[in-house]
Design goal:
Layout lengths: L1 H18 L1 H8 L6 H12 L7 E5 L5 H10 L4 E6 L9 E5 L5 H11 L4 E6 L9 H22 E12 L4 H11 L2 E5 L10 E7 L1
Parallel strand pairs: 1-2, 1-4, 2-3, 4-5
Antiparallel strand pairs: 5-7, 6-7
Helix pairs in contact: 3-4, 6-7
């Protein structure tokens, strides 16, 4: 019965995904994923990017956030991207494949900065979602806390932290952690996020 429910749920998700207007728009415009439009909407509302910024993109694959950011920051800016999954090259983006929880990968990323502070840390990371939020939420919060630790270490005085997270158990406590480290924190939900999704974005500035 459980596998049957999962297959029905997966079939419904795939059907909705391929009928999604943003998926179709991404395919038409040779954009790597619909996540591009989420970042675009967040940027238009909050003016995230400026020419020449230094950016890190955590959970970057397939690369739509790096793709969007590169257009905004121009050739004088730089992007460091990291994901467990592979990502096709993007001009101007220095990609590291691996789990940044691994000290070796994290040190490679930090060493590539050459002590330069970053203007923006953006994280679109998420674990493999099982659909069981008693399992998923601790994993989500764990990744979110790791992204927060990195942002606290590498961000400049006026740096911006943009994080995808999900509403659920443990979120309120994590949100309080962010408010300790940043002077302005707000929750955003772009129109591109599916209505029934618990997905939200946290935008924090110093």
């Amino acid at each position: 019965m459980i596998s049957q429910k999962k297959s029905k749920s997966s079939h419904r998700w795939l059907s909705e995904h391929f009928q999604d207007a943003y998926v179709k728009k991404a395919q038409k415009n040779k954009i790597r994923s619909r996540a591009w439009f989420k970042l675009e909407q967040l940027d238009k509302s909050n003016k995230l990017f400026k020419s020449g910024m230094n950016v890190i993109d955590l959970g970057s694959s397939p690369g739509s956030w790096s793709q969007y950011a590169m257009q905004k920051i121009g050739k004088k800016g730089r992007i460091i991207a990291c994901d467990i999954l592979p990502m096709k090259p993007i001009i101007g983006v220095n990609f590291f494949q691996g789990d940044f929880r691994n000290k070796k990968i994290l040190n490679l990323i930090l060493n590539s900065l050459h002590n330069i502070k970053l203007d923006l840390v953006m994280s679109d990371m998420a674990p493999n979602i099982t659909g069981n939020f008693s399992i998923d939420m601790p994993r989500i919060i764990n990744l979110s806390q790791l992204a927060l630790k990195i942002s606290d270490y590498v961000l400049s005085k006026n740096g911006i932290f943009l994080l995808k997270s999900f509403q659920g158990e443990g979120f309120n406590e994590f949100y309080k952690e962010i408010k300790i480290l940043f002077s302005k924190v707000k929750i955003c939900k772009p129109k591109t996020s599916r209505t029934r999704s618990r997905e939200i974005f946290i935008l924090a500035t110093r």
